[in-house]
Design a protein that fits this description.
Number of helices: 3
Distance between the termini: 16 Å
Number of strands: 0
Helix content: over 70%
Structural class: mainly alpha
């Protein structure tokens, strides 16, 4: 597989993992134990922080690496 395709695949998968990470954080802002009357804008401002971004990027990169390792092992086992 070419480097260009591998980088595109990594970018797409990491972006997908980041989307799920932020969707989970946003859902957590509206659980039963959070304040009533919280607006969507307040919740978005609350979750989009530098710390959350760094956690998300690191977790997404590790997640991609783990899944890629599993993919390689499955391909090796198939051959």
């Amino acid at each position: 597989m070419s480097t260009k395709i591998m980088l595109a695949r990594a970018a797409i998968e990491i972006t997908g993992i980041l989307f799920l990470f932020y969707a989970n954080l946003l859902m957590g802002e509206f659980t039963g134990h959070s304040r009533n009357g919280k607006t969507l804008m307040y919740a978005l401002n609350d979750i989009f922080t530098k710390e959350n971004l760094m956690i998300g990027v690191v977790a997404a990169t590790v997640g991609f690496a783990v899944f890629e390792w599993f993919r390689l092992r499955l391909e090796e086992a198939r051959q």
